[in-house]
Amino acid sequence: MRLPLYLSGVVAAGGLLFGAALPAQAAPTPTPDGGVTPSPGAETVTKAGTSFLTAAEIEAGQPVEVDAATGEYLYWSFAARAGQVHDIEATVTLPADRTGDQAWTIEVFDGLRRRQACVDGVQSPVAKTTDTAVELRCSLRRVRSWAEPWSGDPLPGTYYVRLSITQLPEEDLGQSATVSLVIGAENAGTSADDGELAAPLNPVTRSGTVNAQPSAAPSGTPLAGAADDADGEGWSWDWLPDLPKFSARWFWTAGGGVLAAIAGVVGFALTRRPRVPARP
């Protein structure tokens, strides 16, 4: 009887050891989150725009160092390709002589000015009076290569980053602040159900062509209307007096007024009752 009990104890002990070893082996190894780091050798951008049209162009991995005033809007733009996941991090160094708390926010818009949701990170932190800096972060969804117009999913094209302050004491408005920003891009690949976008969602930054004003025709050169009149087609206004600011519009206005007066008189004559002579 001792041998089976011994063997059973060994088997039970081995089962416990094997069962305890399985969870330890399957547990994931924690990886430290180092955040977004600028690309080696990337040129530092020292400017920012104040609107969508004047947004400073930056690239993923390019550091930004800007001296700004508290209360103004700061804009940057970057290009996004299908399959990328962008992580935007900003650090605002605040002045020491603040009188109250400040609420900052970072927002991202696509080429159609649609606000994109941040799926991770502190997007709108509040800096206490004792804080020396405030950190903001916004992780975007994976950029798709195709999506329905109503979905609002991020698509390839130009994206805009806006950094602003939403709440602060009026006494602190205009104080100097230093902004550090960097955008990280990770290629996550495209999905099998994605299609292909015909063109990236880039804003129209080139204005349209301005029609050239027709130059004054030299003397003796007939105009287009004159040529039609010579062929017997169209109207000719050569009989109008050559007065300043006098054109065919004056003729039609005056003619319309005369016709309206005649129509009023005729209508009055047709609708008025005949006068009955007074009895003696």
Task: Give a verbal description of the structure.
The chain has 280 residues and is an alpha+beta fold. The protein is built from three helices and ten strands, in the order H-E-E-E-E-E-E-E-E-E-E-H-H. It comes from Catenuloplanes atrovinosus. This is Peptidase. Keywords: Membrane, Signal, Transmembrane, Transmembrane helix.
Give the quaternary arrangement of the chains: single chain
Low-confidence regions: 1-34, 216-233
Number of helices: 3
State the end-to-end CA separation.
Answer: 156 Å
CATH class of the domain at 56-187: Mainly Beta
**SSE string, helix = H, strand = E?**
HEEEEEEEEEEHH
Strand content: 15-25%
Biggest sheet descriptor: 6 strands, mixed
From the helix content, strand content and strand pairing, which structural class follows?
alpha+beta
Transmembrane segments: 250-270
Region (Disordered): 202-230
Biased composition (Polar residues): 204-218
Keywords: Membrane, Signal, Transmembrane, Transmembrane helix
Summarize the structure.
The protein is α+β, with helices and mostly antiparallel strands and 280 residues long.
